[in-house]
Amino acid sequence: MPEITLYTVPQCADCEAIKRLLRHEGAAFTERNVRGDPQALADMVRRADVRIAPVTIIGDQVFYGPFRDQRPQILAALSGRA
């Protein structure tokens, strides 16, 4: 399984939904709160070229936007179809 990093902000419904999806799929991930950690924000911007969470990085694949947009991409990446 590739390394998974999820960049989040507190009280974000889309962030919570992605965490639930990853847990449901049995995927281990590292969560980084970009609001409370300037280094996490800098890493997210460098890796994804966006400044708005949630951002999900699976291996070298970068997904961002609302949960409904990320969900099919995350599932494909986790199943090896992406």
Q: Would you write up a description of this structure?
A:
This is NrdH-redoxin. Pfam families: Glutaredoxin (PF00462). InterPro entries: Glutaredoxin, Thioredoxin-like_sf. It comes from Deinococcus arenae. The longest helix is centred in the last third of the chain and has 13 residues. It is built from three helices and four strands. β3 and β4 form a beta hairpin. The chain is globular and about 30 Å long. The two termini are 13 Å apart. The protein has a single domain, classed as Glutaredoxin (3-Layer(aba) Sandwich), CATH 3.40.30.10. With 82 residues, the chain is of the alpha+beta class. Strands 2-1-3-4 form a four-stranded mixed β-sheet, with helices on both faces.
Task: Give a quick rundown of the structure.
By secondary structure, this protein is α+β, with helices and mostly antiparallel strands. It has three helices and four strands; from the N terminus they run E-H-E-H-E-E-H. The chain has a four-stranded mixed β-sheet, with helices on both faces.
Largest pleated sheet: 4 strands, mixed
Q: How much helicity do the residues have?
A: 40-55%
Uncertain residue ranges: none
SS-derived structural category:
alpha+beta
CATH architecture: 3-Layer(aba) Sandwich
CATH superfamily: Glutaredoxin
Coarse morphology: globular
Give the rounded overall mean pLDDT: 95
Numbering strands along the chain, what is their spatial order in the largest sheet? 2-1-3-4
Distance between the termini: 13 Å
How many E strands?
Answer: 4
The CATH topology:
Glutaredoxin
Separate helix tally: 3
Protein name: NrdH-redoxin
Organism: Deinococcus arenae
Domain Glutaredoxin: 4-62
InterPro entries: Glutaredoxin, Thioredoxin-like_sf
